[in-house]
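Hey L., structure's done. Input below.
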Amino acid sequence: MAQTLSTTGTASSGKSGRLRGNLSVASIVFIVVAAASPLGVIGGPVPLGIASGNGAGFPFSFVIATLVLLLFSVGFTQMTRFVPTAGAFYAYIGTGLGKGLGLGAAFVALLAYLALEAGVFGLFGPGLAELVVSYGGPQVPWWVWAAVGFAVVSLFGYLNIELSGKLLAVLLIAEVAIVLVLDAVVIFSGGGPEGFSTGIATPAQIVSGAPGMGILFAILSFVGFEATAVFRDEARDPQRTIPRATYISLISIGAFYTLSSWVLISANGESEIVALATQNPGTILQSTTEAYLGAAGGHIVQLLFVTSLFACILSFHNIAARYFFQLGHRGVLAASLGRPHPELGSPAAASLLTSAVVGVLVLAAALLRLDPISQFYTWLGGISSVGIVLLLTLTSVAVLVFFARQQPGGPRWQRQIAPGLGLVGLLGFLLIILGNLPLLVGEEHYGPFSYGVLALLASGLVAGVLVARRGSVVFD
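Output:
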């Protein structure tokens, strides 16, 4: 039997201590894809990947990232049936590599998701402020609008997950729809001034410039897809829902990013795209939309860009709250965090703690007068980027070790070959991210922020090993 993390006390409450929900495959897909913020990616990381990566060959980076993550998902979903807990990363890593690393992974995951939730407020606040001003509204500091978004996210996070799922479905459909409309118009018009881009299929273009940077921005665009297992207790049929949601989320995100980045390049022309992306990385999506869909299209994209960021924040809030819930439920943190709301069936106390931590971070950024984008978002995004890829890598190792030691035999492709190939790819991604970490945190070379990110994540792993030595946390 597979080992699962539990405690001598609070974890024994059985089903009465679990979260309640009836999430379908579609609901979970909406939640995790919203975390990836598709419109935000096309308007942000894609121009950056084109400008600092491999130019017209950048869309192929999404193909590589999708294939590697699909290989990872083969082992991840194969192991799902042996990990009957909603702990996600820490449950898988703990089952395969021991409770010390498992708890360390939980702390790293919390750092990563909390950092990203807070950091995206650094994009949301200025984005909403600019939107309001563009419609004749008052000009106020970014943190005022961040506070408004924070209040709404905190409310939805406190309530049952199904309400968040419905809201995220609406927002996600809207943001994906406008980009697909743009894609369709460009494609049916025969492409841009130079026709359709061929960089995605041209080896010389794919390896031009800095392909490693292209891979870097591509892999960061997928953050959030791996969280499907966090919602296991609230899923309608976990053993079917979780694997299906994982594959659908990943394939949908990968296909959308690949197609839309190729169309963005085609719409502007291969010979001009790098210069345009370098000069105006934050506005190229809006200007392209205005060129093909008119001023109304540009306004819609500007509005949906803000709602996309809100959806991203809400998704990561739900994920972080469930990590707090599972750690409280299993005696690692305060037991009150692991008790679901008696009427809502939501991780209410864990959600309030998540809001408190994120609120403190946003307040600190405002009081310290940090630039919301170049400092607050960039620094916290660096923590999240390294943390998530590190956890994906450790999970791949855990899958291979688990099937080698605890469940030998079975299908080799699902339990050995695919996870092994995925691990090789993820190790490559991790090395690329570590090599470019200074860029992610706004430094020219390794300095205090880069080393600080590594020290913080290492502290999380070490803390897990130390906490795991407590007698109240056991595997059974």
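The CA atoms of residues 81 and 121 lie 36 Å apart. The chain is about 70% helix and 0% strand.

-- N.
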